[in-house]
Structure formats: C-alpha cells, structure tokens
Amino acid sequence: MKLTGAEIILECLIREGVEVMFGYPGGAILPTYDAMTKYPQLRHVLVRHEQGAAHMADGYARATGKVGVAIATSGPGATNLVTGIATAMMDSSPIVCITGQVPTPAIGSDAFQETDVTGVTLPVTKHNYLVYDVEDLAYTIKEAFHIARTGRPGPVLVDVPKDVQNAVTEFEYPEDEIILPGYRPPQAAEEEQVRVALELIESAERPVILAGHGVIMSGASRELLQFAEMTQTPIALTLLGKGGVPEHHPLSLGMMGMHGTGQANLAIQNADLLLAFGMRFDDRVTGNLKTYAPNARKIHIDIDSSEIHKNVRADVPIVGDLKTVLNQLLPRMKRIEHKAWMAQIRDWMEDADERDIVNQNVSNRLLAAHVIHDMWTATNGDAIIVTDVGQHQMWEAQYYPHERPHTLLTSGGLGTMGFGMPAAIGAAMGLKQPNVWAIVGDGGFQMTITELGTAAQERVPINIAIINNGYLGMVRQWQEFFYEERYNATPMFNPDFVKLAEAYSIPARRVTTRDEVIAAVEWANSITDGPVLIDFVVEKHDIVYPMVPAGADLHNMIRRPMPSPDGI
Amino acid sequence: MKQTLVALVENKPGVLNRVASLFRRRNFNIDSLTVGRTESPEVSRMTIVVDADAEKVQKQLYKLVNVIQVEDVTDTPNVSRDLALIKVQVNNETRGQVTQLCDIFRAHIVDAGPDTVIVEVTGNEDKITSMTELLRPIGILEMVRTGVVTMTRGDAVLAPPEFYFATNGNRSNGFRQNVL
Ligand SMILES: Cc1ncc(C[n+]2csc(CCOP(=O)(O)OP(=O)(O)O)c2C)c(N)n1
C-alpha cells in the first residue's frame, strides 16, 4: 500500500490505540491535518493554544495510563508545547508530540517558522527525533510510543519535515519487536539486594513507607498495601503518590513534605527505616537534606537508576519495576508488628486533628479548606481531581483524600500554573466520565483560561472550581511569612468568571458562603453534557498549614496555631 | 578527582549534542571529550574525562536512548593517549634544543620552516604536559591537543553488541556519514 508520510503517521497512531489527539494546525503540519480527513476514527481536538494541547495529552495520559498525543506546527506551534512537555517530563507522564518542521532542504536556513525543535526540547524530553526520510517514519513513531510508555515513562517528540509528510512510500507497519541497543528498562531486583532488604525490614522498629508516583505508574497499589499490612508499616505519600494507597486506610499518614501532615513528617524524621517506593526525594519532600531522617536506613526502589543516591544515599539500592520487586519481596516476608511506633504515630495524628481547620467552626468566612472538604463530601470522595498550582493545590492534597490510583492529577515536579483546566479536559476525554473536577486558583486559571473555548466546543463535561482569593495566593503566603507582608505583584484584578463562562455558553455560578457549597457541587454534578464552572470566592488572607520553609528541617514545621474561638 | 569513562553510542545525528547537553544541565565538569569511529560504522566511541562522580555520570549517560554502553575505566589498567601538535618558534640556537627534547619524549618534528617547527607528541596527559612546559620557554606559538582516548589493557573488550548489526536491515536509521 503506497501512503504519504502524513498518512503513515496517522496509520501508526491508530495502531498504537490512539483515539484522540490534541492539536493546532499550521503550515508545516498541514499535510497531516489534511490526511486526518481520511481517518475519521481519530478524533482531533482543536485547542486554543498549543500549551493546552500538551497539558491535555498529559492529563489524558495520567488519567488513563495510556500515551497522550499532541500535534503542532513548526516554530511557534512547537515552542508553545514546551511548557507542557517539561511538565510531563518532570512527572514522568507518557506523551508523544508530533510537530511539523520546515521541508528538509530548508532546514538550517532560518526559513519561515523554522525552530530547532529537537534542540529546544532535548533537555525536556525522554527522547526526540527529527525524521529526515519517510522510510524511517513508521518505526520512529512506533519507537516513540515504546519509549514514552516503558521504563520510567516520559514525553517523546517526533519532528517531521513537511516534505517527509508529503513523500510517498510503500507502507508496511513494522510488526517486529523494538530492539534499541541503548534502551533496556530494568525489571526485577537482584537477589542479593532482596536479601539485604528483607533483613532490614525484619529488624526495623520504626519503619515508614514513602510511596511516590512510581506506585501508581507501576500499578503496585495492591502489593504495597499487602506489604504495609504484613509489616504494620505506616505509609507517607508524596503529592504524586496520592491515590496509590487508600488514604482512609489506618496505616496512611497522608502527604509528606513542605505542606505534608505533621504525622507524616514527624514519622519520617523519627524513623529507623525508610522504604522509598517509586519516589525521588525531591527537595519539597525532604527539606534540609543534612537533617533528613537522620537515624533511618534507606531502602530505595526505583526504575530509574539515576535517582538512586542522587539526593539521598540509599543503604539498599534496588533498580527495578516496583510491582515486580514487591512481588519478589512479599512471598519471603514475615508478619511483624510495631506497637510502640504505631502508638506514637496515633498521638501525632490526634494533635493534627485538633489543629485541623476542618474541625473548626468558622461561620463568617468561606475557607478554601472547607470548600474542598465539602466538595469531597458532595462527590462521595470519588471524583477525578485535576488541580492547578498554588495554595488550592495543597489544600486539595490535604482535604481531598484519594482512595484509588489515577484520581489526582497535578503538576508536581514542575509546578506548572495553567496545567489544571487543560489537563482536566484531557482526562475527561480519556475517561469519558463526567466526574472530572478541575480545582484551580484564580491566577493559574487565567494562564490557560483560553481553553474554555475548547471545553465548550467539544462539550467536555468537566467541572471547574475556581478557588478565587484575588491573590497569587501561594506567593502571597511566602510574602507574608518571609518578606514582611510586602505583597508586591500578588493582588489580582479578575474578570467576572461567571459572566466569562456564560460568554462561552458554559453554565456557571458564584458561591460566597459555606452553606451554598454542597448544593453548588451537586448542581455541577448534575450537568453532564458539557463544562460547568463554579467561582468560589474565598478568604483572601488564608495560609496553608503546616509549612516547612524551603530548605528548613522537615520536623520544623510552622503549625497552624491551636484554635481560637472564632476560627483561624 | 578526574574520572575516565568510555562510552559506546549510536552514530546518529545529534548524539554528541545530547551528551554535551546532559553534561551541561547536570553540572558535570568535562575535562576532555573525544569522539571517534569504531569498527562498526553505526557505533561511535567516546572517551570522557570528567571532574565529577563517575557513577552519577554513568547513570545519567545510560538514560540517553542512544547510549549503548558506558564503562568507568578510571581504576582499570588502561592505555590512555593524547596527541598534541605544537608550533614552536625557533632560531639557530634553539632548533637543536627542540630536536633534543623530541628525542627524549619520543616526539617528532613533522614540519619545519625557517622560523618555526611543528612538534607532534603522543602520550598520556602527563607526558604532554611536561613536554609543553619544557617547550614554553623556547616559544610556543600555537598548540592543539586531541583529548584523551583510552582502552583498557588485557582481554576485556568493549565493542558494540552483535545483535545490533543484525536488526538494522535496510533502514537508514537516521544514519548519515559523518553526522556526529
Ligand atoms: C507558570 C508559573 N509561573 C509562576 C509560578 C509561581 N507560582 C507558584 S504558586 C503561584 C500563585 C498561584 O496563584 P493562584 O493560581 O491564584 O492559586 P492560589 O495559590 O491562590 O491557590 C505562583 C505565581 C508557577 N508555579 N508557575
């Protein structure tokens, strides 16, 4: 069968199981857009800005576990993808980006809309390709998907010059297995490491599991719980680890790190064994490395060998797929109890409960924590939540417990404002479910607010909850704590979000008091044939507690003051 | 401490760029980096001397899809060679001195003009450094060094895996002559 390069791209996407791609046309990618008319089974979603396309592909990938696809033209189209690609890279999210490029004879001539896209994206992709020859196209796309989804997943970009898209060749799909001499993702742990790990696990008195994104990516939730229950080991979660284990489980300590729970951070600092499962000791979870878990030995399991010893020296380094490695450990483990340790942890939990704003009666103000707590109630704790970046993201992490994997999608590593709403669109399109909520700040929302057009045009049933505090809240919090309340460049003039949504024919409401919250959420839940928006106007000067200042010792948290009669 | 790594990489467009970019963004200090062909046209070989934790460098290199194999040869008995071409200003008095030095260092004069000679010296880094120190007072006008290439001694072999040749068939595989 003779096909053009453009048709080959789409044939390959279909064979990878792609149903939807997010993109934006332009000169250098037009042959591929034209070829789409022959492949109606591939749905194309027209975004409003290519950054949105990359976040949508990312959200789709995080929600479904499948590879997300974004398409853009050369030059500005491709550079607009970069923030989204970097976001996916930091959080190991599998996406494939296809970009048009100027025709091969023009490459290097500063042609119209020419950018060295493989050069620009080199440090923020897992791998990238510039395809010079149509003969290489099919297996390159196949390799791109393979690399994106295997090992430690990540974004892969394929740059295809316009003449390569137009060139015609005999198409034969490369059916054989992909063999890349320099790419062999690890699987199982070495026997010696398993043996040493088992010894440490058996002799530990104060162990803590640190569960990261790897738990979800490797599908190891069941094995992890079994491990924790057998050894009575409490589990602290990273932000991206949330959902990896049911958060209502008695062994769950909640989130660790800068805005983690008191019990999680104190448990880590007092532990004698840390079991780091698919996490990478980011500075936001360790605080000061010199004082981090000083008495703990560390067993570090990660699929990426370069993460081991990178920030924290591991006593037992294990390179492998978490699920595979846990299945190596489990059959050889004994039942263990840690009564004194668990009693200590329960004390810390009680202290945290007392300080918890959710348990305090604040009637005169709408607090973001209350909004999120009530949202959790009104969605039966079962929504897919996509957040943006800032205070609301941390409140979500603290007040919306997740019970299942892939139910919290958030930009952790890069902290990309503007991620929330487009990623929610991608998630909702992948899951084909109406219970996807985008919880966004008024600042970050406006970074990609333009995708309201996409949501409206495609009738994507996302629920948008703006936590509107009229400030770049998280930055304001740092200014309050560390810059003597000089609120420079953080107050925000905002549009009337309800009217704005209505201009897109999106139903919208404003909520200003706590008693309206549950009804509004239920109202949004009842609308399932397109997007809906709620503008929660919350307290302006609220603070996310606890907080470990950047670089401080993990146990030196700024705690929420004990309740005063009128609340905060 | 300086560490020497030898890497086999695919001979494809941009691979040198990927390695160089990695060193820059991970803040690894490159002392010297040489690239050249191997017995296989699809595989190039790099000798990298770094002032960084060799294990970290090795792991990061392995993350690059085009990097096939990396070995830390710092503590393995090896042969390391650097080549320098040094253009020295000479007159009737000093010409003899240069010739003498060349004898001692087993270097060669590969070009001679009325006022200059080019000295070619091969050896490990120390030897070349000593040679340049002795030539300096005579008058070095220009100098170039290739950087170190290293091969371990004995029977151990670092060569491209065979299966790689078998699977490539008629793909052009992005392969271009002299692309690196
Ligand atoms: C693209 C980008 N620019 C800047 C920042 C720095 N930043 C982190 S949080 C934040 C404030 C976010 O404000 P808002 O979206 O209103 O959310 P809130 O913190 O008020 O919940 C800023 C500016 C960022 N994370 N991403």
Structure write-up:
The complex is a heterodimer of chains A (568) and B (180). In chain A, helix 1 (5-15) packs across helix 2 and helix 3 packs across helix 17. In chain A, strand 19, helix 22 (517-526) and strand 20 form a beta-alpha-beta unit. Chain A has three domains: 2-170, Rossmann fold; 191-348, 3-Layer(aba) Sandwich (Rossmann fold); 366-537, Rossmann fold (3-Layer(aba) Sandwich). The termini of chain A are far apart. Helices cover 37% and strands 16% of the residues of chain A. The model of chain A has no long low-confidence stretch (mean pLDDT 96). Chain A is globular. The longest helix of chain A is centred in the middle third of the chain and has 17 residues, at 339-355. A six-stranded parallel beta sheet of chain A has the order 3-2-4-5-7-6, sandwiched between helices. A six-stranded parallel beta sheet of chain A has the order 11-10-9-12-13-14, sandwiched between helices. Chain A has a six-stranded parallel beta sheet with strand order 16-15-17-18-20-19, sandwiched between helices. By secondary structure, chain A is α/β, with parallel strands linked by helices. By secondary structure, chain B is an alpha+beta fold. Chain B has two domains: 3-76 and 156-163, ACT domain (Alpha-Beta Plaits, 2-Layer Sandwich), CATH 3.30.70.260; 79-145, Alpha-Beta Plaits. In chain B, 31% of the residues lie in helices and 37% in strands. Chain B is built from five helices and nine strands, in the order E-H-E-E-H-E-E-H-E-E-H-E-E-H. In chain B, strands 5, 6, 7, 8 and 9 form a five-stranded antiparallel beta sheet that branches. A four-stranded antiparallel beta sheet of chain B has the order 2-3-1-4, covered by helices on one side. In chain B, a hairpin with a 5-residue loop joins strand 2 (29-37) and strand 3. The longest helix of chain B is centred in the last third of the chain and has 15 residues, at 125-139. The relative contact order of chain B is 0.22. Residues 165-170 and 172-180 of chain B have low confidence and may be disordered. At the A-B interface, strand 6 of A face helix 1, helix 2, strand 4 and helix 5 of B. The structure holds thiamine diphosphate. Thiamine diphosphate binds at residues 388-392, 415-418, 441-444, 467, 469, 471-475 of chain A.
